[in-house]
Amino acid sequence: MSEPRLHSWSTVLMGSPIILSLLIDDRDLAGRVFRLIQRYEDALTVNRAVSQVMAINHAAGLHPVKVSSAVFDLIRCAKEASLVSGSVFNLAIGPLVKLWRIGFQGNRIPDRDEIADRLLLTRPTDVILDVADRSVFLAHAGMEIDLGAIAKGYIADRVRDFLRQQGVEQALINLGGNVLTLGAPQGTWSVGVKKPFAAADALVGVVEVANKSVVTSGIYERWFEQDGKRWHHILDPRNGYPLDNELESVTIVSGDSLDGDVWTTLLYGFGVEKGCALLRQREDIEAIFITKNRDVILSSQRQFRFTLLDDSYRVSACTA
Ligand code: ADP
Ligand code: MG
């Protein structure tokens, strides 16, 4: 049988390259997908003056702001993830993200005092939700919600729902590292796992999946160098500095991309050992850890197959 022909469209949204691949040549549908992504970005972004999330941030310390049910649900989910015991995921990390500006112009190592001051404004419990009113109130002036770690996952899930509604059975959408697959043309889709700090197209390996999300979060995506050290964009809300441990990237295979986004950040904070232990209780979430020592550690392989492509890495499984 000949290979099915893929039709792909790309654009840039949310500061990231976006690629949609379909088995049908439907430019109009691709346009509608990109407009859907744009609408969600307009509601969730904190990189422009106006959005629903920015309306909440501008009203910090002043008054609650009513938002759409989509935005409210995502913020509620982000708050829950922030309150998991030992979580480094923090939806109120905004003041620190804005201070470091990692990945944006003007990035720099802030003074210790500045970091200490901002840390006081990042308590997730100070994000006050009113379910009945669908409103969000930030208890102190200067607080800022930042959904940068999970917005792409949430939006990828909405794109999947939209494509299903349109009767599309096979598709792949890549939102700058959040890959979501529907069906599979020949049994599985192949999704590359990038080699950290290497050429853009260099891969450590390939994941084969169908109907799954594959999300990678790595410290090699956005960073700057100062004082002989790399400072990357995943911040540790316990001390206000970029997270520092044995990991270079975490890939999550899961049903929903939102779960993938939450878990990449959670596991990045927990590290390999604790991460492996936690995943034993979650059959639906599977991880591929890549360490600075070039170990590739798989929690399990129920929903995917992993093939190593770079033999300077060693593959192993989580130990019990
Ligand atoms: P990418 O945008 O490269 O896919 P991630 O999904 O890893 O990155 O999310 C990183 C972004 O999440 C940062 O740019 C910032 O906006 C936000 N962020 C940084 N640290 C945290 C944290 N501890 N908890 C929640 N969000 C964070
Ligand atoms: Mg993420």
Q: What does the model show?
A:
The chain is of the alpha+beta class and 320 residues long. It folds into two domains: 7-34 and 150-317, ApbE-like domains (T-fold), CATH 3.10.520.10; 52-138, T-fold (Orthogonal Bundle), CATH 1.10.3980.10. Helices cover 29% and strands 27% of the residues. The protein contains seven helices and 17 strands. It has helices spanning 27-44, 52-58, 69-83, 94-100, 112-119, 151-165, 257-279, and strands at residues 7-13, 16-22, 65-66, 127-130, 135-138, 171-175, 178-182, 189-194, 203-209, 213-218, 223-226, 229-232, 247-254, 286-291, 295-298, 305-308, 314-317. The strands form four sheets. The protein has a nine-stranded mixed β-sheet, covered by helices on one side. A three-stranded antiparallel β-sheet has the order 3-5-4, with helices on one face. Strands 8-9-16 form a three-stranded antiparallel β-sheet, with no helix packed on it. Helix 1 (27-44) packs antiparallel against helix 6 and helix 6 (151-165) crosses helix 7 (257-279). The radius of gyration is 20 Å and the shape is globular. The mean pLDDT is 94. The structure holds adenosine-5'-diphosphate (ADP) and magnesium ion (MG).
